[in-house]
Design goal:
The complex is a heterodimer. By secondary structure, chain A is an all-alpha fold. Helices cover 71% and strands 0% of the residues of chain A. Chain A is globular and about 75 Å long. Mean pLDDT of chain A is 82; it is low at 1-23. Chain B folds into two domains: 2-72; 94-158 and 194-335, Orthogonal Bundle (MetI-like fold). The longest helix of chain B is centred in the first third of the chain and has 32 residues, at 95-126. Chain B is globular and about 85 Å long. Classes of the chains: A mainly alpha, B mainly alpha. Chains A and B meet through α2, α3, α4, α6 and α8 of A and α2, α3, α5, α6 and α7 of B.
Chain lengths: 315, 336
């Protein structure tokens, strides 16, 4: 933890050998790196950081190792003894995905089918609304914007039962439609707020120039704003994706327990209740449900962090 | 019509998904086309084109149900007789629900404080080290995992096996398979039923949430720490501040707005925590919290009045934190 970028060559040294090195001043980052060196990066500091990192990794690592161990091994000994007699198998994953008692493959498909429209629909609607709030002048605009924004405080628990009753009376309960609709509704206030913030950051002169050229709202929206908004859309899309994929409450309420609709999270949570000691299935099941968000997260971490710093946290 | 409602093969499901998206795109296309092509539309028609879908969704899915739930909370279990504030009185006075309120309070106090503290310390410790981005990813990873997945990971950490030792040789007859109980055995302490023993089981559930939220705190605070102006750090260093002094007098005060945002954001998330309790204990053994009790009362006990009252309670508790959070967020943005 004492590693810092090497300091730039000092000016004095460069003066002695003028033709070899071009002297340059220390950048701010380098100055700070030097300043910090020897302050916090004591052995103690490194030790604490390493302990935290290990504590944070062990639980996942343990279950990960377990998911590849033989059923009888899992019951007999702890996963930390696996290195003594290494024998690993994919049998648990095979069982969890296609075994008749779990058949997670079906639920995996459900999760995908639930998630994609639940990301596309709210973002499209929110983009339109954010555009109107940012670039169309109309009376009561600010009031309406604050009202939509304020709806973020409504916890989804408050809405579940009236919505469910409505869906039942329409005969739509337990279908994908109500899950798509519900996720879209719950995403809107935050999505509008964030996308509006990003849209406001685009220089007004760009939009004005397009207007002078005779471009209508639709043209401005697609040709001027959309290209600039892509990173913002990407960060919110990742958040919404993770949120929907990882959701339990909405699916538990609206999917009606039908294996044709229920996503992975609901099924895995159910297994944890009914087959709590079948760790060979639970461990593999947990990782099957986690693999997609983990890949998305690791591949797009940059956008994820940006979204997080912009306030993409569902309250 | 059934084709749209019941899909039982993967192909059918994907087809349905594509149809839904196309349908949506078509509707939006018609709206936009109309707004764009018809000349000399009054402004309000254009605005309605852009805002209409949002207003419809939000009014149907947030506004109306919210009001409806508040109304329901004033009626009895089957929504037939008006009972005034009886449901709220029950929620506050019956011992069974007082445990729920107490647990919620413990969650909302512990999770934000501990995870923010750990996140901050870690962010400062790894700031500008060679392994910074790798070290961050390790702590941050739990944020990508579902709360259900996290619950299973930790249930395995807490897994308990009946302790049995050969009385003569002292050799273990049953091996622990949960790491935490194994650590206890190594230390010579008998293994514990972490998720059953009250009142500490609530703490062991809280640990899961801290495990998840510390990554969030770390990321936001790390960005805030990096944004502290160099001249302040420089000046403090010349004044002889080091290590913990620097942390206490420079780092923490400089990132105060970010700290408040992190604390309140985590508090809001924690108030609504449902998945962890549901998956790990189902709210049994005295571990229930408001969000879980809402679910139990509404969907298991079918006491709609009480369920609604608990949801409204959640709503009321969240409002002040959100308001404070938004104000601090504004403040933090102005400083940035």
């Amino acid at each position: 933890m004492t590693a810092v970028p090497p300091p730039a060559p000092l000016t004095a040294e460069a003066d002695e050998q003028p033709n070899i090195r071009v002297p340059r001043k220390l950048s701010r980052a380098e100055k700070r790196a030097i300043a910090i060196k020897g302050k916090l990066s004591s052995p103690w500091a490194s030790g604490i950081a390493i302990v935290i990192a290990i504590l944070w990794t062990i639980p996942t690592f343990g279950l990960f190792v377990t998911s590849f161990r033989d059923k009888s091994d899992i019951r007999a000994t702890g996963w930390w003894t696996a290195w003594q007699d290494p024998s690993f198998t994919l049998e648990n994953y095979q069982q969890a995905l296609f075994g008749s008692s779990t058949s997670l493959a079906t639920y995996f498909v459900n999760s995908i089918v639930i998630t994609i429209p639940s990301v596309v629909i709210p973002i499209s609607i929110a983009l339109l609304a954010a555009y109107a709030f940012a670039w169309i002048d109309f009376r009561g605009r600010d009031l309406l914007f604050v009202a939509v924004f304020a709806l973020q405080v409504v916890p989804i628990q408050v809405t579940l039962i009236p919505l469910l009753k409505q869906y039942v009376s329409w005969g739509l309960d337990g279908s994908f439609w109500v899950i798509w609709l519900s996720h879209s509704i719950f995403a809107l206030p935050l999505a509008i707020y964030l996308l509006h913030n990003f849209m406001k950051d685009i220089p007004a002169s760009l939009v004005e120039a397009a207007r002078v050229d005779g471009a209508g709202h639709v043209k401005i929206f697609f040709q001027v704003l959309m290209p600039l908004l892509t990173p913002a859309i990407a960060s919110f899309a990742i958040f919404q994706f993770l949120w929907v994929w990882n959701d339990l409450l909405v699916a538990l309420t609206f999917a009606g327990g039908s294996p044709n609709v229920v996503p992975l999270t609901v099924r895995v949570a159910e297994m944890s209740g009914t087959r709590g000691s079948a760790w060979e299935l639970l461990s593999a099941g947990a990782f099957i449900s986690m693999i997609v968000p983990l890949v998305v997260f690791l591949a797009l971490q940059r956008y994820f962090v940006r979204g997080l710093l912009a306030g993409s946290v569902k309250g | 019509m059934d084709w749209f409602l019941i899909a039982d093969t993967p192909g059918h499901k994907f087809a349905l998904m594509v149809v839904a998206i196309l349908l949506f795109v078509a509707v939006m296309g018609v709206i936009l086309f109309g707004v764009d092509r018809i000349k000399r539309l009054p402004v309000w028609v254009t605005v309605l084109g852009f805002l209409g879908p949002t207003l419809l969704f939000v009014a149907f899915g947030l506004l109306y149900p919210g009001v409806r739930t508040i109304w329901t909370s004033l009626f009895d279990a089957r929504s037939e007789n008006y009972v005034g504030f009886d449901n709220y009185v029950r929620a506050f006075t019956e011992p069974q629900f007082q445990v729920v309120l107490r647990n919620t309070l413990v969650w909302v106090l512990l999770v934000p404080l501990v995870s923010t503290f750990i996140g901050l310390v870690y962010a400062v410790l790894i700031d500008r080290t060679r392994f910074e981005s790798f070290a961050k990813t390790l702590i941050f990873l739990p944020m990508a995992i579902s709360l259900v997945g996290a619950s299973i990971i930790w249930k395995f950490v807490y897994e308990y096996r009946q302790h049995a030792v050969n009385p003569v040789t002292g050799e273990e007859l049953v091996h622990q398979i949960g790491i935490l109980n194994q650590v206890l055995v190594w230390l010579g302490i008998p293994p514990q039923q972490f998720l059953l023993n009250q009142p500490w089981n609530t703490i062991f559930l809280i640990v899961v949430m801290i495990w998840i939220q510390a990554g969030f705190a770390m990321t936001v605070l790390s960005a805030a720490v990096k944004a502290i102006p160099d001249d302040i750090v420089e000046a403090a260093r010349l004044d002889g501040l080091h290590g913990i002094g620097m942390f206490r007098y420079i780092t923490v005060p400089s990132i105060r707005p970010a700290l408040v945002v992190v604390l309140t954001t985590i508090a809001i998330g924690t108030l609504k925590v449902f998945d962890i309790v549901r998956t790990m204990t189902g709210g049994n053994f005295g571990t229930s919290v408001i969000a879980n009790e809402f679910y139990t009362q509404s969907f298991r006990a079918r006491d709609y009045g009480l369920g609604a009252a608990l949801a409204v309670l959640l709503f009321v508790l969240v409002i002040p934190i959100v308001v404070y959070n938004v104000r601090q967020l504004r403040l933090a943005e102005e400083i940035r």
